[in-house]
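anyone seen this seq b4? input:
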Amino acid sequence: MRRALLAVLLGAAALPATARPFRLEDVVAFRTVREAAVSPDRKRVALLVREADLAAGRFRNGLWLVAADGSAPARRIEASPVPESSLRWSPDGARIGYLGRRALGSQVFAVSIRGGPALAVTSHGASVAAFEWGPRGGLLAVGPAPTGEEQRRREKTRDDASVVGRHWRNHRAWLVSRAGAFSPLTDGTRHVQRAALSPDGSKVALITTPDPEADSSQEARLQVLELGSGKTQEVPGSSLASDVEWAPDGRALAFVRPFDGREISRADLFLWTPGDAAARNVSSALDRDVEALRWSPDAAAVDAQLPEGARSTVARFLVGAGSGETLWKPAHGLALLDRAGPGWVYVPSDRPHELWSAGPQGQSPRRLTRLNPDDIELPRVELVRWRSGEREVEGVLFAPAGESGGSGGTGESPQLNSERGFIPRERYDPRPLVLHPHGGPRDHAGDDFDPLAAYLVAQGFLVLKPNFRGSTGYGDAFTRGNVEDWGVGPLADVMSGADALIARGLADPNRLFLYGWSYGGYLANWAVTHTDRLRAAVSGAGVADLRMQYSISDARRWRFDYFRGSPFAGHEELYARQSPVTYARQARVPTLFLHGEKDERCPPSQGFMMYRALRDNGVETEMVLYPREPHVFVEPQHLIDRARRVGEWFRAHDRQDAGREDSNPPAIVQLHHERLKPGAEAAYSKNEEGIAGVCARFKCPNPYLALESVAGPKEVWWLNAFASEADRDRVGRAYEQNVEVTAALRDLAERKKQLLYEPEDFVATYLRDLSHECSWRIAGARFFVVTVTNAERKADGCVFDAPPATRFVIAPVATRAEADRRAAAAAPHAKILAIRPAWSLPAAAWIAADPDFWRTSPAARTH
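predicted toks r here
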């Protein structure tokens, strides 16, 4: 029985025998449920469903009516004008109100559940932004005041200059009579962001901000307005409130806000009874953000939706208790959730949208709609976990149906664990991998069906969405893990996810790609300036310069929690250090930039800056600008075009033999062998990080890899590689001439001597005739297997001769399993050495200072 239920819940992976491949046009082919509204008797559900109209170049909404118990098929209600948003049932359950557009802008309309023409409920002189039905007829509405005669004159004559910060038209709260007359409840000095009418219609809860700009949410306040007296009461401890709902009996308010009033912090659920001196935080013990809330019908509890990693949890908080308990843990995310019938109606997020019903604890799930086709091949969506330094990181993997990143649920791979079963991985060749970091960064990737990911999987790629440090869903400490570190730490978490999939044999280490949007675009910009492991990248709506972003974005001050304050109030150096464009001269990854022309969140000037910077440094790059598009694209043809360009960019840079141009070994390797004295490890590590820092700062003339033994006595090997003896001589002369480097390294080198036994140096030349299956692929390598021998026979690996009587067999490998296999075959003379990135000098740090050597040195070209 349990397996049968699991099969239902994971139904996205089950495909009919006639399923066709996912095509480019399928990126916008699926209907999506934008809103769900449950009738007062909880027997019916109204759905606002969006679908693409490619001929018109836009999305259109449709209104659907669904029986909550599944007793009748879903039916579409034709309504004109077309509903735009805000589905609201009338108190008697006979009509469905909504916002539709006419000449006066958005107004309230109502349509009978039996169908027929929609009737206009309002005819306001300005657009209505939101509304609620009153308990005795009439409405509570939110919107600006109608434009005055003077303002209309200025607009007509184009005498319309405005002062920055004073040009806003704040929304006000209005009572609307049955006859449609609007009476103001607020004066417009503050912008009404949300208004909630109490069940008896006597009070209104208002969330207000200074103006409509997104940045003003930093000053959000929650107040209760008594309609009879006109008195307003501040809700204590409600700064930055983002959601509010009255209890069904009207005696209490539930609202959501950051627990300590800082934007970065966990959003908790608070309960407040009017007249109390303080609101009670009831959800802090769960240490998860509250994403949605619903009162129980008897007002005894609040049920809240919270992220549990990449999925959702529903928890119940009793009004009289100080903590909550888990009510339902679905095996998928929840795109929408509401009460209906005896339990819930919901939209699972891990498949194309359909409405389902279930009992109070998720039991007896039942599909209620057939909005989307079932004959299109969809990717398998599963959760995977890996280690990144001291932390565990979770991600969402999209793979072809039947393939998985799992380890059978038994921990077979210590680096990668999965929650779902899998067909043994050995049946498949490693695939190219697209890393797709989410936006935010205060957000997380859920196990949501993603048409772009589905398209890329159909093109032969795996897609991994990592929930790197700074993500929500893993506790407040994890969310704060990227404070003053937007680039280095999150990128390490992302790339360690790639390494885990490589170790499992799923991903090809030489075919890694990265695509990101918004903060994900920022991280793409950071990645192309800090690693050369990627074959190509796409940066969408990204950020190049955080100082400029603070100046031009419509949301600014929330970054103060990450970077101490304004860049222009003493923190400019920190902002510059965290800005990808600062490191543009290090970039070598082909990068495509995509931006919406009307994006106010991450304006296209950010893309232009990064595009120009990479182009001026000789990096292959393109930039595409999409007319009319805001931060989140709204036109279907543009969504198709974006997916096409992402796929084409990656395919153009995806070669099955990627990395083989770098697979020929260098003519000469120089090995420096150091053995540490007992107890010297900590001092040695600090010293080497200092040396690496000096070389990164002063552009040391060649790269080097630090290789640390993984077992046995503490020892470190330093490896340099050269294309020829002349190449090696040229680097030596460059060191002699670089007085700054020599001076900066002198003290560190003397300190180092005290920590070591006598070091050894070897200069070894490549022996082609004795090398068998020699592949010098440092890109993607994480270990070196080094075997010391004096044998004259051929060996598996790259053989180097170091006179008078020593030979080294060197094999760079990607995984510890491969390193163990090679070392066992060459025992007892083989050593497994792990690359120590913190001590190594990445080639990107000095490439701009020495471009000729970059082109000739295999080590530089591949590291």
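The first strand starts at residue 32 and ends at 38. The chain has a mean pLDDT of 87. kinda curious what u guys think
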